[in-house]
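Thread amino acids onto this structure.
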C-alpha cells in the first residue's frame, strides 16, 4: 500500500486516516517511526493525552494528534494483525510558521561613510522560509517601502553613503501564516558639511545683517562663528 502524506500546521490537530473493511476478529494498532505501540484497537497505550483513535464510521480507525508539535513529524503505521501483517503507512509533515531568532540577528547599527554594513536575519521554520529585504523611507509624501537586495538571510550594503541611513525590514515567509518580520535601523556617520545660501552679502554701515549657514553631519555637529580666526561670543554686537 503506498505511503500517504498528511500535512498539518503546528498547534493544529492532525488526522491520520485508516479505514478497514471486513476486519472480523482481527485487531488494529497504531505505531510510530520507532515501532512504539501508540494504540490498541480504540484504546490509547502511551501516556500522551493528545492522541486518540476516532471512529466516525465503523470502518474508521483514524489516529488524531491534537496540538501537533514539530517533534511529532515522521512515519506512523496503522497495522492489522493478519498473516502477513497489513500495514498502512502515513508520513506526517508538520509545518512551522517562520520565526526570526533575535539573538542571532542584527540590531540597529552605526557605520561610517565608505564602509560596508552587513545585516542578518536568522530565521527558522518548516518549510525553510524565504527572507525578503525592504527599505522603509519617510518623506514629505509619506512612507515608502522598497524591495532591496536579493532574497536571503543576509543583506550587504557596500560603500555606504549618508543616503543609505534608513530603516530596513526583513520579512520571512514560508507559506505558513503568519510571516515574521524585524526592523533594523542603519545610522551613517559623516563629517560636517557647511552650506552657505549667500556667500557675499552687501549691507549699509550700521545696519543689522543676518549671516546664515547650514551644517549637516551625523552625529549632530557643534557649530560656532569665527571672524578672522577668532571665535565670536554672544554680545550686543553678535547674537
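Threaded sequence (239 positions):
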Amino acid at each position: 500500500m503506498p505511503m500517504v502524506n498528511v500535512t498539518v500546521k503546528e498547534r493544529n490537530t492532525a488526522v491520520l486516516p485508516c479505514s478497514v473493511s471486513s476486519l472480523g476478529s482481527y485487531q488494529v494498532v497504531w505505531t510510530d517511526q520507532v515501532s512504539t505501540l501508540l494504540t490498541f484497537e480504540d484504546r490509547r497505550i502511551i501516556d500522551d493525552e493528545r492522541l486518540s483513535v476516532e471512529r466516525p464510521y465503523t470502518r474508521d480507525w483514524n489516529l488524531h494528534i491534537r496540538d501537533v508539535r514539530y517533534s511529532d513529524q515522521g512515519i506512523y503505521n496503522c497495522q492489522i494483525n493478519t498473516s502477513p501483517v497489513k500495514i498502512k503507512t502515513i508520513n506526517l509533515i508538520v509545518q512551522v510558521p517562520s520565526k526570526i531568532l533575535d539573538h542571532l540577528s542584527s540590531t540597529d547599527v552605526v557605520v561610517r561613510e565608505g564602509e560596508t554594513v552587513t545585516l542578518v536575519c536568522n530565521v527558522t521554520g518548516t518549510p525553510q522560509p524565504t527572507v525578503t529585504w525592504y527599505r522603509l523611507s519617510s518623506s514629505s509624501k509619506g512612507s515608502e517601502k522598497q524591495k532591496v537586495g536579493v532574497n536571503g538571510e543576509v543583506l550587504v550594503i557596500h560603500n555606504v553613503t549618508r543616503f543609505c541611513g534608513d530603516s530596513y525590514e526583513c520579512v520571512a515567509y514560508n507559506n505558513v501564516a503568519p510571516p515574521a518580520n524585524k526592523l533594523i535601523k542603519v545610522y551613517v556617520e559623516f563629517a560636517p558639511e557647511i552650506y552657505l545660501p549667500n556667500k557675499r552679502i552687501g549691507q549699509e554701515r550700521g545696519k543689522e545683517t543676518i549671516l546664515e549657514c547650514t551644517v549637516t553631519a551625523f552625529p549632530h555637529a557643534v557649530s560656532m562663528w569665527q571672524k578672522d580666526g577668532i571665535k565670536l561670543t554672544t554680545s550686543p554686537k553678535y547674537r
